[in-house]
Amino acid sequence: MTDAIITALAVLAVAGQAVVAAALLVGALAAAGVRRPLEVVRGALWGYELWAGFLVAAIGTGGSLFLSDIAGFFPCELCWFQRVCMYPLSIILLLAAVRNDYRVTRYLLPLPLAGAGVAVYHLLVENGIVGQSTACRLSAPGGCTTKWIEELGYVTIPILALTGFLLLIALLGLAAAGSDEHRQEESTR
Fold first, then answer.
1. What is the pTM of this model?
2. What is the pLDDT of residues 143-154, one digit of tens each?
3. What is the distance of C-alpha 86 from the center of its chain?
4. Residue 93: which domain range?
5. Cα dihedral 86, 92, 95, 96 sign
6. What is the CA radius of gyration of the chain?
7. Is the N or the C terminus of the chain less surrounded, counting Cβ atoms within 10 Å?
């Protein structure tokens, strides 16, 4: 069962990476003046950005708890910093989605931005590009370079985290950009 869940998380990560790539393309087109794809995405997600963000954060939180508490993988020092950035998002985004409060998105954006930065650094350490610190070596067996999982040839725990953080950045950015419109819509009711 553990292998099946790890594979499911990896497949979700690959799907998330496809969504991130599409979001980057839509953003690049919008920056170049082609706004129609952005309008289509905003129209499709309108009113559900916070719920989608909550879903991503809940899967990230649940996945990390599964990997440490059920699969028995020891979180390293960098994993803990990523958890600090992910866990509060699942709770706060749920509360914001229930209350339909888009104002909070601008204040939440620093969490996935910092988490993505830590995940990129973790990938560099994991792949031997940057040396690991003493704290990393002491925090878990093998330190921050241990690849507890390597699904589909490249999906490791930092890749899972980075994918979740990038999705959250896109969703929170979209929600923050539309928060003024949401507020105007609420005031006309």
1. 0.91
2. 888 888 989 889
3. 7
4. 2-187
5. negative
6. 18
7. C
Amino acid (one-letter) located at 145: T
Residue 141 confidence (pLDDT): 82
What would the pLDDT profile of 41-98 be if each residue is shown by its tens digit? 988 988 899 999 999 999 999 999 999 999 999 898 899 999 999 999 999 999 999 9
Structure tokens at 166: 């990038």
CB 16: neighbour CB atoms within 10 A? 21
Structural domain tally of the chain? 1
